[in-house]
Amino acid sequence: MFVILLIGCTKENVKHNTTSAAKNFLNNNVIEGQITVVGNEPFTELGLMVNDSTVYMLDCSKEIKNTLLKNQGSFYKIFFTKKTDSKNGIRLSVSKTEKIQK
How many domains does one find in the chain? Predict the structure, then answer.
């Protein structure tokens, strides 16, 4: 007599949970992630990577942009005033940032 027990987790369930967490942040106008640069020179953009498949483009003042560019790879809490859908994904209008120590 053989018994085979199969237990699994689909990728869709994991992705759905991650997306729900990101939506909760977005609803509160605050989101956390790692600062990254997206695209190829000379068409690069500042982004916030919240997981392996989600990056938000950041629109911010020159001072904030310079600070974030110097801290690529660091984790930040981003406060934003507006969320906009664009052809390149979701853009966040950044009002304030806060570095997270990890």
Answer: 1
